[in-house]
Design goal:
Keywords: Signal. This protein is mostly beta strands. It folds into 6 domains: 116 residues, Sandwich (Immunoglobulin-like); 116 residues, Immunoglobulin-like, CATH 2.60.40; 108 residues, Immunoglobulin-like (Sandwich), CATH 2.60.40; 109 residues, Immunoglobulin-like (Sandwich), CATH 2.60.40; 134 residues, Immunoglobulin-like, CATH 2.60.40; 119 residues, Sandwich (Immunoglobulin-like), CATH 2.60.40.150. It is 3% helix and 52% strand. Strands 56, 57, 58, 60, 61, 62, 63 and 64 form an 8-stranded mixed β-sheet that branches. Strands 45, 46, 47, 50, 51, 55 and 59 form a 7-stranded mixed β-sheet that branches. Strands 44, 48, 49, 52, 53 and 54 form a 6-stranded mixed β-sheet that branches. Strand 22 and strand 23 form a beta hairpin. The protein is rod-shaped and about 190 Å long. The termini are far apart.
């Protein structure tokens, strides 16, 4: 009976003791990882190995303590090894912690180790235990092990105890590898660097940790909370520079991973350590996983010599950043720097460059930030091996030492990599910082800017590409042309693919044009027939840029910025500055045609005739050109636009009349330019004409014309044609008019003269002409000097082509007194209410007397 009671009591006590850890951790299973530090990494080493009976031993592998929410939690890991012949049940072992004050606390397994029940013969097993303590230090703590023994009083037998060394630290020595099992992945970790950064009135700690993935699948540190811990136990939450997702590390890959946090200015940077913790959700506790002593703090090395590259890690990919080119130009008391920052992806995966912040730092101490219109223009996507550039323009006073400047590159604003603010006061054993990152940013590099004044592009000189994989460029011409009430600036560029084997795509381009650094020219357009096309190696293509400026504005310099734009992001393509003086318009030799050279629109325009319509107060100059197609297919001819210019420089915008119908190979069109000009000036005018543009391409019929290209000036032969003395073969282009017969009849005693006029019309079928608004006026003058006019409309009054007889009648009472006479016909070309007489001819009027009949017999 006594034996049965003893057995029952023993079982009940064992069950009660074994259940204790389960009661604290029954909520759920934690994701904590076991830290397995090498013996070489501990200083001094832990040295406790206790025999538990039955060939079973327990060895202390690691111990640490972590303060949170005003309390401290100590953890230690035991390795059980079974050298016996029977399975060892862990429920019979009771590890405990004896605190410095003498109180004894049972150690309970962390949630993930609750399922570990026994150790089979010949096997080993590690279990991590936790104990809540009243001190943030392990100093003075003792570990003890009791085992179940029904033969001793109280059924528990003390088999060993161990006082932790007073100077023990769980932190792995600086620079020493520690092998950890993190989320089931073996990872080798080593502390590499500690930088203390003083920037923008703050003190930032930047910790570098080396990590090698020894597992078979990718791993990242995102499941662990990093802290910077001081000697006194104060802690500061670290933020991952790579972002909240951590840095992915591939199997067998080694990476240097950085963490940052803001610390108080009075913090001593010695004796700091890096600590990982992991939350045991079931226990609602944060448990230490790995601790590493940090090396002596150093200042960051931000300075990058001129021409050198800064190595960055972006999205896990190695990227090099460097100043590819920097040029300086002056504008009044300001120096304007144009800086091209190049990024090259040295990795094997796509890298996305964030919108870094930039500023020029002067040796005098001042900062001059770059303020982009759209921060998105600073973001780049780089394929492996690809290089792209970011172009920025920054102004600063010329009084600064321009040869001692540095470009500061700063982390993108608002990046989640940035640190949390520190608490206002460091409390021993306290934990500062919050989970919410601040908006502070750190410099990444200070690039020394090479001192170089910006060159001005000269006409006819080829310059090297401005960007990686770009085009060499030549400024072929730059013109200033009259355009309505403004002037048109037209720059013609030739781009050449300098690659020997690779074709380059010419992007869809846009432009900004600035005069004298401050006047933005209106309505810029880029004309490039091969936009979006691949340009073969060594091949060239033409690009023209048009923009408008007030005609009264004098120009000293012009600056052209060409860029490709996708949504709101601008990608720089080419920037050039040129003196403000423009080339004079090429003067064609007399009789030489104007040539359209655009592929698909090739044609020649030759002056046929230029007429002067004289008016009372002003004249009209009217120039008629014959446009002959040089294409091998039926095409829509290029639309021409022009203006008349006098020797005094005055400009008279010309109206253009041109057919809208397509033209056959070798076909001809009549193109008319005309303008009303002051009396006496028409004889000295020349005609400047070019190809009309609209919306960045050749203008189409019916579309508004926004500019003109390829302008050249024709010398004209204006005439005031003399009237013909007859009405045969009169030139009313494209018609030839002849009066083949004209008869007048007057009956004796009649007050009316009837006339019949036969008109023959021929048309040139070899030319297409649009209606310019000419009127053919027939004037009839009788013997008495009276006149009558009639408009002869082709196709109605006169046959085209063909012959038609017109009938007229003039009435006057004085005709009753006439016994004959004559009448004069005059044909005139009327245009815009002004006339040119084509010809005049007189004809007799046949008189018919009344017949007197003889009297009847």
């Amino acid at each position: 009976m006594n034996k049965k009671r003893y057995t029952a009591a023993a079982i009940l006590l064992a069950a009660t003791l074994a259940a204790a850890p389960h009661a604290d951790a029954a909520a759920s299973k934690t994701a904590s990882s076991q830290a397995v530090g090498s013996a070489a990494a501990q200083s001094p080493a832990l040295d406790w190995r206790v025999k538990l009976g039955g060939g079973v031993t327990a060895t202390l592998e690691q111990a640490d303590v972590w303060q949170q929410n005003g309390d401290s939690v100590a953890v230690f890991t035991l390795q059980y090894k079974n050298g016996g012949k029977a399975a060892a049940r862990l429920v019979t072992y009771f590890p405990k912690a004896v605190l410095p004050g003498g109180s004894v606390k049972a150690a309970n397994p962390i949630s993930k180790d609750l399922a570990k029940k026994k150790v089979e013969p010949g096997q080993s097993l590690t279990v991590t235990y936790y104990v809540k303590t009243d001190t943030p230090s392990l100093s003075g703590m003792k570990l003890a092990m009791d085992v179940w023994n029904p033969k001793v009083k109280g059924y528990l037998e003390r088999v060993g105890s161990y006082r932790l060394p007073s100077n023990y630290s769980a932190a792995v020595a600086s620079g020493v590898n520690a092998k950890l099992s993190l989320s089931g992945t073996p990872v080798t970790v080593k502390s590499e660097s500690l930088e203390i950064i003083k920037y923008d009135g703050k003190v930032i700690a930047r910790v570098g940790m080396s990590m090698t993935n020894n597992g078979s699948s990718a791993w990242s540190d995102r499941g662990y909370d990093p802290f910077l811990v001081t000697k006194s136990g104060s802690s500061f939450r670290l933020q991952r520079e790579a972002g909240p997702e951590g840095t992915p590390i591939q199997p067998k890959e080694r990476k240097l991973v950085y963490y940052i946090t803001e610390v108080p200015t009075y913090l001593k940077p010695s004796g700091l350590r890096f600590l990982w913790t992991e939350t045991d959700e079931a226990l609602k506790l944060s448990l230490p996983v790995g601790s590493f002593r940090l090396p002596a703090a150093t200042a960051p090395k931000w300075d990058v010599p001129a021409g050198a590259a800064k190595s960055l890690t972006i999205s896990g990919q190695p990227v090099e950043a460097r100043i590819r080119q920097a040029t300086l130009r002056s504008s009044g008391d300001q120096g304007i720097w144009n800086i091209e920052m190049a990024f090259k992806n040295k990795g094997k995966k796509t890298a996305k460059i964030p919108a870094y912040e930039y500023a020029i730092k002067a040796s005098e101490g001042s900062y001059h930030p770059y303020a982009p219109g759209d921060p998105g223009s600073l973001m780049l996507t780089l394929r492996p091996g690809q290089e792209k550039t970011v172009t920025m323009e920054i102004s600063l006073p010329m009084e600064l030492k321009q040869d001692r400047l540095k470009l500061q590159m700063i982390e993108a604003s608002g990046d989640e990599r940035t640190p949390s603010p520190p608490a206002g006061q460091e409390e021993p054993g306290g934990s500062t910082g919050s989970d919410a990152p601040s908006k502070a940013s750190l410099p990444l590099a200070y690039f020394s800017i090479p001192y170089q004044t910006e060159r001005q592009s000269s006409i006819g000189v080829e310059y090297a590409p401005q960007s990686a994989g770009g085009f060499a460029y030549t400024l072929e011409s730059i013109q200033r042309l009259p355009w309505q009430d403004t002037d048109l600036i037209v720059a013609k560029l030739r781009l050449r693919n300098t690659h020997e084997t690779n074709a380059l795509q010419l992007p869809e381009l846009k432009a900004d044009v600035t005069a004298d650094e401050k006047t933005v020219l209106a309505s810029p357009e880029v004309i490039a027939g091969e936009q979006g096309s691949l340009i073969a190696p060594g091949a060239s293509t033409e690009v023209s840029v048009l923009a408008k400026i007030p005609y009264t504005k004098d120009i000293r310099t012009l600056r052209f910025k060409l860029f490709a734009q996708q949504e709101s992001v601008k990608t720089p393509f080419l920037t050039l500055t040129t003196p403000g003086h423009t080339q004079s318009i090429e003067l064609l030799e007399k009789g030489k045609p104007y040539t359209v050279t655009t592929a698909g629109k090739r044609a020649e325009a030759q002056e046929r005739r230029t007429l002067i319509y004289e008016g009372a107060d002003s004249d009209i100059i009217y120039s008629e050109l014959t446009l002959t197609s040089g294409e091998a297919r039926r095409v829509q001819a290029a639309l021409l636009k022009g203006y008349f210019q006098g020797t005094d420089g005055k400009i008279y915008e010309a109206d253009t009349v041109q057919p809208e119908t397509p033209i056959q190979p070798g076909g001809k069109q009549s193109v008319v330019f005309w303008a009303r000009v002051p009396k006496g000036t028409a004889g000295s005018l020349g005609l400047a004409l070019g190809t009309a543009m609209s919306g960045g391409k050749l203008a189409e019929p019916g579309k508004d014309v926004s500019g003109v290209l390829g302008v050249k000036k024709m010398q004209l032969n204006p005439v005031r044609p003399a009237a013909s003395s007859n009405l045969t073969g009169l030139d009313w282009y494209p018609y030839s008019i002849s009066v083949t017969k004209a008869m007048g009849h007057l009956q004796e005693g009649s007050s009316s003269i009837s006339m019949n006029v036969t008109v023959d019309v021929k048309r040139s079928d070899s030319i297409t002409a649009a209606d310019a608004g000419h009127k053919l006026i027939l004037t009839i003058k009788d013997t008495l000097g009276q006149t009558q006019e009639r408009i002869l409309t082709p196709g109605t009054d006169i046959q085209v082509p063909g012959t038609r007889t017109l009938s007229f009648e003039m009435t006057d009472e004085q005709y009753k007194k006439l016994k004959g006479g004559w009448f004069t016909l005059t044909l005139a070309d009327e245009f815009q209410n002004e006339r040119i007489t084509l010809g005049t001819q007189s004809y007799n009027v046949t008189f018919y007397p009344n017949v007197v009949e003889p009297p009847e017999e």
